[in-house]
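Notes, p. 3: input format for complexes.
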Amino acid sequence: MSYHKLLTIQDISCVGQCSLTVALPILSAAGMETCILPSAVLSTHTAGFSGFTVRDLTADIPGIAAHWQKENIRFDAVYTGYLGSTEQIDYVKDIFAKLLADGGLRIVDPAMADNGKLYPAFDMDYVEAMKELAFQADIILPNITEACFLTGMEYRESYDPAYISALLGKLYAAGAKTVVLTGVGYAPDQTGVVVFDDKGARYYEHRKISKGCHGTGDVYAAAFVGALMNGKSSYEAAVLAADYTVRCIELTQGDESHWYGVKFELGLPEYLRMLGKV
Ligand code: PXL
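Output follows (278 residues plus PXL):
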């Protein structure tokens, strides 16, 4: 298995077990050189904490990218998560164009919304910019809310397979290539993921443990990227990431004080076993 160099662009929420503080350890454990570009530095994530501080790093990005280009640094994959501003999305498109190795993968988690609502920092201008980024990516990992914002489809709390097919059809028509649609459940105690590409759609259903655990989307996306870069297919990586994320939630359950994230570190040995590394 070759040693890959990957760049992940997302925020540093100093406390809160999401974005870079989750992606960096998971991807490093998965055995790849993980370079980072912090989109912003926040004291905590924005979902449930109040009074958090935010330092937007948009202005630093062009200089960092230009330096890498001058040094001839190239990445086998660029994986983006929560970004700091609408303007930043243009810089990310430029990084896709200039800093990917030949055949390098563009993976976009359009981390901007959940449960029918945009995260507090974002507005419809951000959604419009995210559409351009997402529809030029090789793989996107939206949840249902994000897929609705990307397509203009009405968000529904309860739905059937026909609704999900229509959502996937709209994403495909807009230019999506491989879609990993998360949080798709047809029964109260079940959830799952649909992987949709030119071969069709495959659904993996698994147990839903509790509603709305913070940071699980980021754990899921990082575990997916780690598995994919280890040679798994999109579907295999989606299944493995789901099993790992469920395990992280199990490892956190019962600790009421740990409401802001999941104890993903405790699941890393199992993640490595799933990858066949130990
Ligand atoms: O987990 C997504 C995420 C990442 N980063 C920040 C967030 C959130 C979700 O709310 O607020 C800063």
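The two ends are 14 Å apart (CA to CA).
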